[in-house]
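Progress note, project year one: complex with C2E.
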Amino acid sequence: MLNNMNFYSFMHRQILIVIALFVSTGFGYVYMGWFYSSLRYELLWFFLLLLLSLWGYRLYKIYKNNNLNMQEKEKWLNHLRYFLFIYFSMWTIMFFLYILHPAIELHYIAIATQLGVAVVSATILVSQRKLAIATLISLMLPLVIYFILLDEFYSYLLSFFTIVLGGVLLYASSNTFNYLVKSQYQAYHDYLTSLGNRRYLIELLENSIRLQKQNKKFPYLLLIDLDHFKTINDTLGHDIGDELLCEVANRMKELSKRHYNHVSRLGGDEFCILSSPYDTKEESLEHAMRFAQELLRIIKKSYTIKEHHLYISASVGISIINSPDMQAGTFIKEADIAMYEAKTQGRDGIILFNDDLSKKVEYKLEIERLLHFALEHNEISLKYQTQVNEKNEIIGCEVLARWHNEKLGNVPPDEFIGIAEQTGLIIELGYYILKEAFQTLKSWDEKGIYLQQMSINISMRQMFHSSFINDVRKLSAQYLNDNLTSKIVFEITETSVAEDVELLIRNMNMLKTLGIRFSMDDFGTGYSSLSYLRKLPINELKIDKSFIFELENSEQGKTMIKTIVNIAKNLNLNIVSEGVEKSSQQKFLIEERCDILQGFYFSHPMDKEAFEKLLLH
Ligand code: C2E
Ligand code: CA
Ligand code: CA
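Model obtained:
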C-alpha cells in the first residue's frame, strides 16, 4: 500500500489536473454543438460538467484547508472516488448522444474522445486500482458494443483492438502503480530492517502533532540507542552487526505491534518509536515508562548470531508530544537529549526529557560556543598543585587548567575539558597548556627551583592526534633541555585507553625517547585496568581521589588501596595518591609505602607566582 499520508495528498493533487483537463476539452463539445445546431444538449452537458467540477474543487479545498484525521480522510477519499467515477462517466453520456446522431463526423469525435478519456483515466487513477478498472470498463465497453453493433468485418476488428487497448491500459496502469508503491516504499523504509526510516517517522510525527490540535491527545516518542554497538561492529564485523540490528529491530517491531506503536530506524543503531495517543500526559508518561522498561528487557535477552552469543543493552530517551505548536524535529531532539543523558548516566537506562535537561544542554552549547574564543581572549590560565614525598617535601606539581569567562564565570575543567575533547578544541587548548607549562618549568629552573617532576594532564584525543608528537618535540626543543624534559610526566586516564592500544603504545614509546614519563591517572575508576596496565609503558600510577575519600568510611576502602599499591609495586610503578585532605589519610598512605602525595591537605592548586613563593621561602 502507498504510504498513507502521501497517498491522500497524491490523490488530492490529481483533482485539479482532471478538472482543468475536462473543462477545457469539454468546451470542444460546445463548439461542435454550435456547428451542428444541437447546441442545447451540449450546453446542458457542459453546465453539468461545470457543476461537477465545483464538487471536485470543493473536495480539493476540503483536503487542503482542514487537517483531516484518518477517519475523515477515508470518508473524503470515498467522496472523491464517487466524484471521479461520475466525472469520467460524463464522457460516456456524450458518447451515446453523438453516436446516435446521423452526422458520421460526430461518431468519429465520440470514438476519439472516448479513447482519449480512457487513456487519461488509466494515468490519473493509477493509485486507485479498483476505480481505474471500473472506469476503464465503463468507458470502453460502450465503444466495444458500438463497434459490434456496426456489424461490419472491420468493426469486429476495431472492437477487438479496443479490448486489447483496454487490457494494455490496465496492465500499464497497474505496472505504474506497483512501481509507485515500490519507490514509495523505498523512500520511506530502511533497507536493512525494513522498518520505517527518518522520513517516515517525521511524517508520522507531523501527523500526530496535527491531530493533537483537534483531539488533545498525547502520544509519546522513544529514542533508543544501543549501547557499545560500535564495539560489536568493530570486533565481529559489519555482517554480524547488521544481523544483530535486524534481530533487535524485529523484537522492537514485535513488541510495538502489540501496543499499536510505530517503530522506525533513524540510522546506525538508533531507533525511534512513536506511540498511539493517550488521553492525558500522565497516562502517556506511565505507558511510556512501562513500554520502555519492557523494551529494554527484551533487547537485553541474549542473541545467537552465527555461533556468537551476544548481549546488548540500550539507552532510551522519552519525550511526550504535548504541544501542537512544536515541530516534529523538536520532539526528536528532546528525546535525543534525554537519551544522551541516559548514556552519560551509565547507559542501559531510561530518561524522560524535562526542562532541566534542556537547560543543561543549552549551557553546554554556551560553553562550547564561548570556549572557541577562550584562548584568543586569554581566558585560560594554569594552576599548579604541589606533590610531596613522605617527608612532606615538595618534589613536583600537577598542572591544572582554569577557565574564567566574563559571562560564565569560572568554569571547572571537569566541564570544559570534556567539551573541548568532543569538539576537538582540546588539540589547540592542549598545545597552549603544554607550551605554558614548559615555559613555567624553564623559568623555575632559571630561578633555582628544582623539581623531580611536573605532571601534565593529556587527553586521549591529543595522544592520538597526528601532530601531537611533533608538537611535543618542538616545544621541548624550544623551552627545555634533556634534563628538564625528563621531569615531564604525562597523565593519561585509563577510562579512555580502550581505543587503539597498539597505536597508543607506539606513540607513548616515541615520547619516551624524548625522556617523557607516563602516569596512569584516576586509577581504579576505569574498566580495563590490569591488562592495559601491563601493556602500556607507564612509570607511575595515580590512585583516584575517590579511594582516598573512602578510607575513613570502611575497611574495604583500606583494602582497596592496599591492593592497588601491591599491584603497582609488583609492576615497579611509582605511586601517587591524590585528594589527600587529612593527616590521617597521609599517615595511612605513607604506611602503605605510597611514594607521592597530593591534595588540599598540602595545598590547593595555585598560580605560578604563589608556587614560586612557596618554594623559594
Ligand atoms: P584530575 O587529573 O584527577 O585532577 C585532580 C583534580 O582533583 C583537580 O581538580 C584538583 O583540583 C582536585 N583535587 C586535588 N586535591 C584535592 C583534594 O584534596 N580534594 C579534592 N576534593 N579535590 C582535589 P580540577 O583542577 O578541577 O580538575 C578536574 C579534572 O579536569 C582533572 O582531574 C583533569 O581530568 C581535568 N583537567 C584539568 N586540567 C587539565 C588539563 O590541563 N588537561 C586535561 N586534558 N585535563 C585537565
Ligand atoms: Ca590528573
Ligand atoms: Ca585524578
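The mean pLDDT is 92.
Residues 198-353 form a domain with the Alpha-Beta Plaits fold (CATH 3.30.70.270).
No further modelling is planned for this target in the current period.
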